[in-house]
Structure formats: structure tokens, C-alpha cells
Predict the structure.
Amino acid sequence: MHRRLLGYALALFIILLSWHVLSLIVNSPALPTPLQTVPMLVTYGAQLGPDFLVSFYRVLIAMIIGTAIAMPLGLAIGRSPRLDTVFGPLLYILYPIPKIVFLPILLVLLGIADAPKIVLIALTIFFQVLITVRDAAKEVPEASVLSIRSLGASRMDVFLHVVIPASLPALFTALRISSGTAVAILFFAEAIAGSTGLGHFIIDSWAMLSYPRMFAGIIAMAFLGVILYEIFDILERRLARWR
């Protein structure tokens, strides 16, 4: 734990130092120094706090929904050649489509509150988790399946005690990777259609040419991504201890 905190402290020092040097080189109001930006976190804390919680709620709920739907489907498709034959081509066609393009449609159908933002992020997470879990389920060694079946295990037992545990590491890898994508989509959704959240705070600051305030929002959004990453890392250590 102490080593992990030390690593974060060192990384933060390197980032702040590089940021400060780059700001001095560029010498533009559009890139304020950390010394100009960090106090804004305190100055606008009363606004940043609620916006942070709103954004965190949106992205976390969306990732839970997307994962809850995608994981069982991915396991089923990965273990069934027939299902894979039917749904595999659909995944190859639909997955490369950038899901952000559906934002205007979702705004028309669901309004500009939380729903379209949550659905958009959940849709993105759904495909990333589905494909990762499907591939992980496919790669479960048949010897492991046959060995537990020889002991009288049912198909459900195979899923619970072999397929799911073997797929968990891939699932958490997908979640950690997709957390960055989820935060990026959240920013676009809140910036384009919203009056709350960190994305709106950043764009509002940019429109007012308040660059230190804008970078304070960027720091808060980066912190949001770190929290999500750590949540999935902790869950993996708890649920996949054999790694």
C-alpha cells in the first residue's frame, strides 16, 4: 500500500513538473501553470464538488448497466459455437461504429437529463465488455471443462466454477481500459448537452476564457478516471485473488 501511494506521489510530481515547464515554454494564457490552476480547485470547490458527484454517478451507473448486460451474453456466445456464428458477424459490424454518433438520437428520444448520457456510455461499455468476455470464454481450456464434468458437474457448475473465474481477469482488464473511454464520452455528452457535470464545467470555463478554472475541471475529471481505475483494480484483487 505504501509503495502504491509512493508511486502515485512520484507520478503526480513528474506530471506537475512537466506541466509547469511546458507552461513556461508555451507562455500562453491557454496553458496556465499548476500554481495558477490548483487554487481554483478551492475557489470553485462548491461548484466542482456537486458536478464531480453528478459525473461520477452517471459514469458508474452506466458501466454497471453495460457490464451487467454484456457479461452473461459474452459468456453464452463464447461457449456456444452456434450463438457465436449468429452474433459474431453482428459484433464485427456494430463494434467499430463510434457510439458517440448516437448522442443526437438519444437526446431526441430521452431528453437532455441523465438518461441519454448513461445510455450512451453503457452502450460503449456493453460492446467492449461483450467482445472481451466472449474471447476469454472461448479460450477456457477444454481440459478444465472436461475434468469438472467428469466429476459430475452440470453445465451451470461449469459456468460458475470454471468459465466465470477464468473470464474475470479479462473482464477487469476491459473495465480498466474502457473507464478512460467512458470518461471521454461523458465529457462530450455533458459538454454538448447538459447544464451539470464536469464536462459542462470545463466547456463553460473555456467559453469564459477562464483557463485556470478550465484546468481545475480537467484535474477533477482526471481524478474521476483514477477513482474508476482503482475501483476495478481493487475488485479484481478481491474477486480474482488467484492471479
User: Anything to note?
Assistant: The mean pLDDT is 85. The chain has ten helices and no strands. The CA atoms of residues 51 and 83 lie 42 Å apart. The radius of gyration is 21 Å.
